[in-house]
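Regression test case RT-17, inverse folding.

Input:
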């Protein structure tokens, strides 16, 4: 049975279509290789000003894509809005909506009455931008494990080349949460004269060791699945869905918090109030929820893309890459105004990580604002707490000064 069409909220950007652009030149990568051809999937919202000076680039997190707002003209059948609280938030109407629809549109945080908002699928992606599942022109087959290892900086340089092709020289802002926030910070470091403002939400200058460890477990779960076949599973009729499902379960738990899980699931049993004495089927509601997350995710995401993107975010380390091991020298050239937003219950990208960035920028005399929002949902707050982020971001983009502290 088909799902009912979503009812678009006030302030919507309406129905949108993902478009594609082939970069005219190869992309030079940190690993020393060049990649060509490179196709970039993207969507735009709002109207580009005659002076082309009202552009905001929105960068997505690991499992996102270019469809950030509005209703997809041709929904894929699997929504990126499948995380914690998605059904409570969206009901049946969430399918087809962009992953940050509550933040992008007329009167929203990224106001399309004022700004021209662009979102691209990142390099290495599986949702329209060139990645491991794309055809290698040298062989005529999918790249698979022959795809070059990419970094966040490579993703940003690809975005820069994409904007060049559109004739956009400067950005009013770069924004994103999680891995998207890393991209925004990387923009400020790599292209300091081309970015007016940065909005980095639930992000960090370098993933903490615990985050590196959890990502390693997720990647291993994919690569230890026999169906991974060394990354050459395309066209074989088998894909590492089992390992990919476990990777999604592991990753999803890191995005949540203990209080949020307790509030939503507690220790409620899946089957009435009786134990079924089984080790193969879910006994608890939280177990069933994780299986649902796994089953949904493997239908829309490529396992190799997960491996490459996860590796890129663990490589990201501004201090090591640009400051000789120290954060302050890495940020010395930043010229953009910076807004950092963190969430009290986020243990994967904790407020302390944003505080380190704030302290380094403030010590350098750079304009920076830092807000900690008290919220119980862990890292996923950047997708769920849209209403509380909106006034902070609108005030910042308007140039007003916001107070450091809690919201």
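Golden output:
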């Amino acid at each position: 049975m088909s799902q009912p069409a979503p009812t678009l909220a006030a302030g919507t950007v309406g129905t949108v279509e993902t478009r594609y652009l082939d970069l005219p030149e190869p992309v030079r990568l940190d690993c020393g290789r060049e990649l060509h051809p490179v196709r970039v999937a993207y969507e735009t919202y709002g109207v580009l000003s005659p002076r082309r000076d009202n552009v905001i680039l929105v960068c997505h997190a690991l499992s996102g894509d270019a469809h950030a707002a509005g209703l997809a003209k041709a929904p894929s059948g699997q929504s990126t809005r499948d995380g914690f609280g998605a059904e409570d938030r969206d009901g049946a109407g969430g399918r087809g909506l962009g992953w940050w629809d509550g933040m992008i549109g007329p009167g929203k945080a990224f106001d399309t009455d004022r700004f021209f908002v662009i979102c691209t699928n990142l390099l290495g992606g599986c949702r329209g931008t060139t990645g491991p599942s794309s055809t290698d022109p040298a062989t005529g087959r999918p790249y698979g494990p022959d795809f070059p290892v990419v970094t966040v900086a490579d993703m940003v340089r690809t975005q820069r080349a994409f904007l060049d092709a559109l004739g956009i020289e400067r950005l009013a802002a770069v924004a994103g949460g999680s891995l998207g926030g890393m991209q925004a910070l990387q923009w400020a470091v790599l292209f300091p004269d081309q970015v007016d403002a940065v909005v980095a939400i639930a992000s960090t200058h370098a993933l903490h060791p615990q985050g590196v460890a959890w990502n390693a477990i997720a990647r291993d779960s994919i690569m230890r699945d026999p169906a991974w076949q060394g990354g050459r599973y395309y066209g074989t009729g088998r894909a590492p869905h089992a390992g990919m499902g476990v990777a999604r379960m592991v990753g999803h738990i890191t995005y949540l918090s203990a209080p949020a899980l307790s509030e939503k699931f507690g220790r409620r049993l899946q089957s009435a109030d009786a134990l079924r004495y089984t080790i193969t089927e879910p006994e608890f509601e939280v177990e069933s929820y994780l299986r649902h997350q796994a089953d949904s995710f493997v239908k829309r995401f490529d396992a190799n893309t997960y491996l490459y993107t996860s590796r890129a975010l663990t490589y990201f380390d501004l201090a090591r890459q640009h400051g000789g091991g120290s954060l302050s020298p890495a940020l010395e050239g930043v010229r953009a105004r910076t807004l950092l937003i963190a969430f009290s219950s986020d243990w994967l990208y904790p407020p302390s990580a944003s505080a380190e960035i704030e302290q380094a920028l403030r010590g350098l005399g750079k304009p920076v604002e830092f807000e900690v929002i008290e919220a119980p949902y862990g890292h996923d707050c950047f997708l769920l707490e849209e209403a509380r982020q909106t006034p902070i971001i609108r005030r910042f983009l308007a140039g007003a000064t916001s107070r450091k502290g809690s919201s």
